[in-house]
Please model this.
Amino acid sequence: MYTIYHNPRCSKSRQTLAILEEKGIEPEIVLYLDTPPNNGELSTILSKLGISARQLLRKGEEAYKELNLADDKHSEADLIEAMTQHPKLIERPIVVNSNKAVLGRPPENVLELI
Model:
């Protein structure tokens, strides 16, 4: 079962979804801006991606600056909490299949899961 954490306004997210559909995969689509993952779900996703919370942060977002997330004093848990409270901070799209996940940047990364 494939799941894509999707933002339809993002071209990379749309391209990633199109690649999945071209391969005959109809993923569960999570509009993460409307229904953000909770702290536990985001921790699991990070584990499947094999990256830290800091690596998943969108550093150009206003909330990143407002919350001073560039400061190294923030723990992994702090960053996860910030992303669940401000889902625009989550880099996208994320595609999960079983115990693996990839970031669709570039969209072709999704081919690693197929």
Summary: DSSP finds five helices and four strands in the chain. Residues 49 and 91 are 12 Å apart (CA to CA).
